[in-house]
Amino acid sequence: MHFASDNTAPVPPQVLEALIAANHGYAMPYGADALMGEVRDRIRHAFEAPEAEIYLVATGTAANALSLACLCPPWATVFCHRNAHIEEDECGAPEFYTGGAKLTLIDTPHARLTPGKLEKAISFTGRGGVHNVQRGVVSLTNATEAGTVYSAGEVAALCTVAKGYGLPVHMDGARFANALVRAGCTPAEMTWKAGVDVLSFGGTKNGLMGVEAVVLFDPSRAWEFELRRKRGAHLFSKHRYLSAQMAAYLRDDLWLKLAARANAAATRLSEGLAALPGARLLHPSEANSVFAEWPRAGHRRAQKAGAQYYLWPMDQTLTGPDDAPLSARMVCSWSTTDEDVDAFLRLVKGKTTERA
Description:
By secondary structure, this protein is an alpha/beta fold. The chain folds into 2 domains: 12-254, Type I PLP-dependent aspartate aminotransferase-like (Major domain) (Aspartate Aminotransferase, domain 2), CATH 3.40.640.10; 255-349, Aspartate Aminotransferase, domain 1 (Alpha-Beta Complex). Helices cover 40% and strands 16% of the residues. The protein is built from 14 helices and 11 strands. The strands form 2 sheets. Strands 1-7-6-5-4-2-3 form a 7-stranded mixed sheet, with helices on both faces. β4, α7 (152-164) and β5 form a beta-alpha-beta unit. α1 crosses α11 (240-250). The chain is globular. 52% of the residues are buried. Belongs to the threonine aldolase family.
């Protein structure tokens, strides 16, 4: 019953086998390995983007921060949701790597930006000329931090607003595969065809040991990204071990299969919770995350039995009345089983009058 995050899950055997295979013999460093060529070809094919440039880094924070640094000068701002990962969970890395660019936070339901709110925020920015921070870049998170998903049409509508002001668009795709499986569109339709300029293409949260790809649909930005990656200490010497993971991820659509498993587990969990007395979903469960609340007694039973998940927000406590609702975040991974979900639901259901 491990629902703390999808990054707590093990690595699929196909990835470990690829790492073992990559460990034989010698390979050129710094991304000049043959496996990186395979990664580049497979991503270009999957995204129908033959001219795209692709680079690997080890963390999502690096992927996002370095991407934004290429798109936003220090005197400008990144328009994003109030609950975007770049705002809540990256310790100021986007501001650091851009040299001080501000984040302009937009508050909309279920962590999904709307064209109207985005347009209002952009139009209000820079009104005082040199005295104000300037318009920089729009960053979208798909899947969102609330477990919701932008459709390809919704991405296109937001990109239309951004392009109307001459702004580039970055997509934080730490859970891009989960969003894509849910949306039922192609990678191209979700990204460059909709107007996205740079994608942080996640791997770690979907089963990899530790690698993310940055996909630059505009190759003119490639050299700057290479320099920023090196200067930012994110260019790996033994790069083949990053390449091996990403190559295995892309072979035989493993990345989509892993995401489909995680999404299916989350659907089972969300439907099960929604059916329990005293429980309700806080956001639509569209990818592999579930946000819900239920009576405190159910939380006590689950956590006493060893279930791992976060009370959300984290300042809640298990001390207090049994019937008082507490909210939580649960994330399913590729390795979450039906048995895991059903055991958790039985614990939550229990007897609501039980005392700790």
